[in-house]
Batch of 2 targets.
Target 1
Amino acid sequence: MEGERRDFLDTLLSTPSPSGFEAAGQRAWVEYVSAFADEVSTDAYGNAVAVHEGTDDGPAIAFAGHADEIGYIVRRIDDDGFLRIGPIGGADRTVSKGQHVTVHAAEGTPVPGVIGQTAIHLRERSEEEYEDIEAQFVDVGASSREEAAELVEVGDPVTVRSTVRALRGARFAASGLDNRVGTWAAAEGLRRAVEADAEATVYAVSTVQEEVGLQGAKMVGFELAPDARVGREEGLRERRFCDAVVAVDVTHATDHPNVDAKRRDPVRLGGGPVVTRGSVNHPVLVELARDAAADAGVDVQLQAAGVRTGTDADAFYTSRGGVPSLTLGLPLRYMHTPVEVVDETDLDGVSALLGAIVDRAGDVDSFSVRV
C-alpha cells in the first residue's frame, strides 16, 4: 500500500473519533470518498454512506466499517483540578495509566494531559491492583477546579495520543486501528467498484457508535432495506435497495504469547483476511467470499462464530426483514490498547477480496437460504 491509499489510512488514524464524537473522522472519510462516489450522504447521527450506482438489474451490496474508537469522557473536575473520567466503550483499565491523552474541548480544541499513575516507589507492591477507569484521573496541569474549568468541561471526550509506528516488515502499530481499517476497506471496496465500472451497486458505509452497542449499524440497517419497494408501500421516503452487507472489522490474532489456550484460534497476522462462519454469517455470502478469494488468489482464514460476532453484522442481519450479512475480519493483535498491530498484507488482501466480491456478486442467483 502506498500513495493516496496509505495517506488516507494515516489521516483516519490521526483523527480522533471516540464513540458519540465521530464528526471529525467522518468528515475525513466523506472528503476522500466524494472524489469518486456517485453520491455521498450522512444522517442525523453522522453515519456516512457513499454509493457507486450499478446497472438497474445488477445486485446491490454494502461494505461497512465503524468509524468510532474507544476512549474516555470527563465526569467531573476535582477541587485540585484533576479530571475524573469514565469509559467510552470497552476501555481497558489495565493499559490506561501513564498514557498521554488529549481532552477534546469546545469546538475540538485539544487540551493535552496524562492519566496519572503513582510512582512505583510510593506504592505498596502487595496491594497493587488495577483501578477501574472511574477511579483514575487526567492531569492537565491545572492546580484548581477553576483553572481546569477554563480548559475543559464535563462531557468532553478524551483519547489516548496516537502515533503510527512501522514495525518489522509489513506490520505497523497504532491506536484506533479498530476500526479505521474497516472504514478504510469499505472505501477501498467502493473505489475498486468505481474503477471497474461494476454492474453491482456498491454502498460504502462508515457507521458511528459501534463500540457502545452497534447503534449506527441499527440506523443504517433500517435504511438498507432488502426490498426497495418497502419504503414506498409504507408511504415513507424511498429507501436504498441492498441485497447483502459485508461488515469489515478487526478480529483477534492470537499468535502471540500469554493468550490462554482456550481462547486461541487459527487466526494469525499475515495469514490473510478472515471469513467468519456460523450464526450471523449468511452461508451464501460465506460461499461468495470464499469463491471470490479463490478467483483473486487471496489467502483467507476461517473463524467460527457460534453465537454472535460482536460486530456491526449483528445489527445489520436483523434489520427490517433481515439483511444477509457477513463479517470479514482483519487480524489484529492487542485489541483496545494504544498499541494495536496489523499486517499491511492483510489490508491489501481485504481490499482485493472486496473487489473480487463485487465482480462475482452478479453470479449469485439468490441471497436467500435454500430450504
Note: The longest helix spans residues 177-195.
Target 2
Amino acid sequence: MSAPAPGADGPSPRPRTAEHYSVAPALETPDGYVAPGMPGVPVPGYDPTTRADRRRAAPRRRTALAVTLALLAALLGGLAYGCAPLRAADSLGWLTIAQAGLVALPLGLLGGRNRLLPPLGALLAATALLLGQLVQHLRLTHAAGPAPDGLLPAALSSWRADLRPLDAAFYAIALIGGFLLTRRTATRT
C-alpha cells in the first residue's frame, strides 16, 4: 500500500518525512531583524523621537519658588517648634525630622534635580531647628520677667548655656535629613 501523491486526493495522513540538507537553508527573516534577547532588540512601543519630545515638553522647574517656599517652611517649622508646650522641650528634638521634611518637600518637588538644593535643604532644616530653639528660649526669658540687658541677648545667653551634646545630634539629624529628603523627593518626580 502506498500513500497517494500530494494534491491528488488531498494531503497525506502520514507525517512528513524529514528533509535532509547538506547546508542549512537560509531563513527568511525581515531586514533589521534581531533575535529576542540579543543586544539591539527594539523594545515594543519605543520610539526615540517621542522620548526626545517628551524631554523637551517637561515642565520647567521653578527653583526660585521652591527656595521661597522652603524658607517659609523653615520659618513656620521653627515657630511651631518654639511655640510647643515648654514641658515637652526635652522630647522636641526629634521633631527636627518633620522640619527637614517640611523644608525638603517644596525644594524637591518644585526645584527638581538641582545640585544646589540638597545642601540648601540641609542648611534650612538646621536653621529651622535653631530658630525653634531660639523662640523657645525667648519664651522662657519672657516668662521669667524683664531682663536687664534686653530680651534677645538674655535669650541667646540662655540658649548657649542650655546646649547639650544631644543638641549636636539633633543638628546632625537636621543636616542629614534635610539633605537626603530633598534629594529623595527630587528623584521621585
Note: The longest helix spans residues 117-144.
